[in-house]
Automatic annotation (TrEMBL):
PANTHER family: RNA POLYMERASE ECF-TYPE SIGMA FACTO (PTHR43133), RNA POLYMERASE SIGMA FACTOR HI_1459-RELATED (PTHR43133:SF8). SUPFAM superfamilies: Sigma2 domain of RNA polymerase sigma factors (SSF88946), Sigma3 and sigma4 domains of RNA polymerase sigma factors (SSF88659). Residues 38-101 form the RNA polymerase sigma-70 region domain. Residues 124-175 form the RNA polymerase sigma factor 70 region 4 type domain. GO terms for biological process: DNA-templated transcription initiation. It comes from the Bacteria. The keyword Transcription regulation applies. This is RNA polymerase sigma-70 factor, ECF subfamily. InterPro entries: RNA_pol_sigma-70-like, RNA_pol_sigma-70_dom, RNA_pol_sigma70_r2, RNA_pol_sigma70_r4_t2, RNA_pol_sigma_r2, RNA_pol_sigma_r3/r4-like, WH-like_DNA-bd_sf. The lineage of its organism: Bacteria, Pseudomonadati, Pseudomonadota, Gammaproteobacteria, Alteromonadales. CDD domains: Sigma70_r4.
Amino acid sequence: MLLALKNWLSANEPEPADPLYEFKLSGDNKYLELAIDKYNHDLYHFLLTQSDSELAKDICQKTWLTVVEKRQAYHTSQAPKAFLFKLARNALIDELRKQNRLAYIEHPEQQLSVPAEHTVKSHQSLYDAILLLPLQQREAISLQLEGFSLQQIASITDAPQETIKTRLRYARTALKHVLGEDDE
């Protein structure tokens, strides 16, 4: 009976707008669970566009461990989702450096060259085309597709807004080339 009453009371509590902030203040795992439920799918999807599925799972897990270990580092000045994506991005870059798989393009004006067989249309065509982009362009377009503003993308990637605009422009141009002009 007591357990049923406890479950009923906890079910009637309103969900906090910012579970990471509540976790920072209280350290209560229920807020961490709420944050994981709310943001984990988007975080994993972003990481999947930047790496393979195993690495995306590992980095996702490392990101949540970092949240637990450094919960006091969270600031409410940025959106919780942006904070998580920045942690994940930094963890991914560290891991790619360890594996010697990090290859940033020095000249963002370089265009993507795509073989003709990649112009095949399917439900996966946009996702496949994004995976063909250089890392910095792929990162910028993936973050924009996740709903982040230019300012948030700049904050997550530690790059100026004008640089982000350039990366997005080159990414869109390359995607139009791969998918054809009709698929905007």
